[in-house]
Write a structure and sequence with these properties.
Layout lengths: L5 H19 L8 H28 L4 H33 L21 H7 L5 H6 L3 H17 L5 H22 L2 H16 L8 H25 L5 H7 L1 H10 L2 H14 L5 H14 L2 H17 L6 H15 L10 H10 L5 H8 L1 H26 L15
Helix pairs in contact: 1-8, 1-11, 2-6, 2-7, 2-8, 2-12, 2-13, 3-9, 3-13, 3-14, 3-15, 3-18, 6-13, 9-14, 9-18, 11-12, 11-18, 12-13, 12-18, 13-18, 14-15, 14-16, 14-18
């Protein structure tokens, strides 16, 4: 078993878990739930210290504040532009396929829409009043803000930052090693998670939603194999299929955990070792992307809203379509890198249009099957960003691409 690459072990675990869940249903799969939770908890356990140390190190290692500002602007611009593209693709696929037209099926029980925070509340919440409390709550926005400010402060104190950087470097190295240890349990955790998902839902709810799933996955494929492929080829100057092969472990982890945050530790490792991304860029942009670069949410939100509108016979005008697209762009940046995070924003938009949440309740019942693909889109988008910025800044280690691909 030691000779089998980790990525192959994960694929085998996904297949066996799905087969086990479909054949045993709800009888045995629930007994595996603790193993799935333990695996996800192991990954989340390292997220906060790894994000804090990697971002602080990434900023502090930049000798010139102007360079930090230049890189930060390019990363933010990439995130913003590609999020707009994702939202437009989501709307286009929904209008093309008409997933809610003629929808017939028993809906699940009504879901009460949660109240999402206002834009001002999100901005205020980014500045923590207690960083320890923010870490305990796993509030990545607040942690990232504090880490950036601390990194800038270290740059400003000049050579006196060296003792702190030495400690942070050792701590970051230890967290990366701990991540590698935790990831060794991936096959067991992935098997349990897939068995639970397929055992709970099976195929009974998927059939009535075939057009909806078609719209969702068509949008994901376009975002992945058109938008990301073009960016990778023309900006990062790398063959996209070669690129996907390099990051396949990250994609499989995203599919199995349905969490951008849980996948982040592996992203950081792969970016540096297999993509030639310098630590200060990967450590800054990837944790930031895990919180605000949610392309999956940007394309998912409009499809869910348009599906619900069509299911209840609401005719949407061009103004409504524009509003839905705009809200998807804005709200996707507030979707945390955790499972089903975009659903709260979908429910809010439905209430804005006076639509009941019953149709979306059925989608929520199988949302995990969507979240697998949406999370993969998120993490690939983050990695493509750092590769593009690294190439534009001429800091990508091209020698990493000369190294034969290993597991």
């Amino acid at each position: 078993m030691k000779k089998i690459p980790l990525s192959q072990k994960i694929v085998i675990a996904i297949i066996l878990g799905a087969l086990f869940g479909m054949t045993t249903g709800k009888t045995w799969a629930p007994y595996l739930e603790p193993f799935g939770k333990i695996f996800v908890n192991l990954l989340k356990m390292v997220v906060v210290p790894l994000v804090f140390s990697s971002i602080t190190m990434g900023v502090a290692q930049i000798a010139d504040i102007k360079q930090f500002g230049r890189i930060g602007v390019k990363v933010a611009l990439y995130y913003f532009v590609t999020t707009i593209i994702a939202a437009v693709i989501g709307v286009s696929c929904a209008l093309l396929i008409q997933p809610g037209a003629g929808f017939v099926g028993e809906t699940a029980q009504a879901v009460k829409a949660a109240t999402p925070p206002s834009v001002m509340a999100v901005i205020v919440g980014m500045v923590p009043d207690n960083i320890v409390g923010a870490m305990a709550r796993m509030d990545l926005n607040a942690i990232i803000f504090f880490a950036i400010m601390l990194g800038i402060s270290l740059v400003l104190i000049g050579d006196r930052k060296k003792p702190v950087l030495d400690v942070l470097q050792s701590f970051n190295d230890a967290m990366i090693r701990l991540t590698e240890i935790c990831i060794q349990f991936a096959p067991v955790g992935v098997f349990a998670l897939m068995a639970i998902t397929t055992g709970k839902y099976g195929l009974t709810l998927v059939k009535p939603l075939a057009k909806f799933f078609a719209a969702e996955y068509l949008a994901m494929l376009i975002q992945m194999f058109v938008v990301y492929a073009l960016i990778t080829f023309f900006i990062a100057r790398v063959n996209f299929f070669t690129y996907l092969n390099r990051i396949k472990d990250v994609i499989l982890m995203a599919v199995s955990t349905t969490s951008s945050a849980a996948t982040l530790p592996l992203e950081l490792e792969v970016a540096q070792k297999k993509l030639g991304i310098p630590p200060h860029l990967a450590g800054f942009s990837l944790p930031l992307g895990a919180t605000i670069n949610q392309h999956g949410a940007a394309l998912n939100i409009p499809i869910c809203v348009i599906f619900s509108a069509q299911a209840f016979g609401l005719n949407l005008g061009m103004g409504d379509i524009f509003t839905i697209t705009f809200l998807a762009i804005i709200m996707s940046t507030g979707a945390a890198g955790v499972p089903a995070s975009a659903s709260v924003f979908v429910l809010m938009i439905l209430s804005r249009f006076g639509l009941p949440s019953e149709a979306f309740a059925m989608i929520l019942a199988v949302y995990t099957l969507l979240d697998m693909g949406l999370t993969a889109v998120n993490v690939v988008g983050d990695l493509v960003c750092v590769s593009a910025v690294a190439e534009v800044e001429a800091i990508q280690d091209r020698s990493a691409w000369d190294t034969p691909q290993t597991a």
